Amino acid sequence: MESAGDNLKRKKKQYYSQKRQRRFEITAGLKGFLCSCNFNERDCVKESYNLLNKYADKLYPPKEKEEVDEEQGIEEELSAEVDKLKNERGNEERRFQYIDTGAKNLLFIKTTLDEPIEVTKEIVDDIIAEGKQQTRFLIRLVPVETTCKAVVGEIREALKPLLKKNFDSGPKTFSIVYNHRFNNTLNKEEVIKLVADDVFAIRADHKVDLKGAETSIIIEIIKTFAYLSVVPNYLKNKKHNLHLICKPEENKE
């Protein structure tokens, strides 16, 4: 028979397990990266972490530790470090965190970085410049600037600041890249038309170009969520297929 103490422990364990699980679920307003692979998802996650950390360190090098004031005792410094570690463990907020999308071979890496597009641009530019493949399992790396429920109105609302940021300064050619998995509730043509209308509402002199657009609006629908971003040179850079862009003959077009 379970004692009161054991029952309390079990309930606490269930509570924290459920809380942790909820923390690592897809929600609205996330930034990150969609990573595709051909099987070997575990290896793809590891490879994605290594690649993203490498370039995040390059773009945002850690600040040098400030010299501790001489008057601050060693014990005080150690105490501050212990408190810091406790807070970090308690928050569990990592720079990159894998979250299951519910779609096979399509992973989402959540990030605390403000500009995921900046990271992917650096990665893509380096691979093209060096002509060297950097990943084996990770195939496509797509930055995600925000997420929202896969509902037409919420998609348009979430895209508003991204469209304003990218299409307000001058005329551009653009494309809308729409993919969907495990979701048949949205009408693809309707979503594309309405988002295009929102672009033209900002400036009427933008033009659609489905082959060589300067800027692409990415709408990835997976189950009940939409993963959104506005990415420059997305079509030119093989839709961020990291295996294709490292081949010089493929980039001479």
Automatic annotation (TrEMBL):
Keyword Ribosomal protein included in the entry's annotation: no
Domain THUMP residues, every copy: 126-232
Keyword terms of this UniProt record: Coiled coil, RNA-binding
Pfam families: THUMP (PF02926)
Top-level taxon of origin: Eukaryota
Coiled coil: 68-95
Name listed for the protein in its UniProt record: THUMP domain-containing protein 1 homolog
Gene name linked to the record: LOC108564479
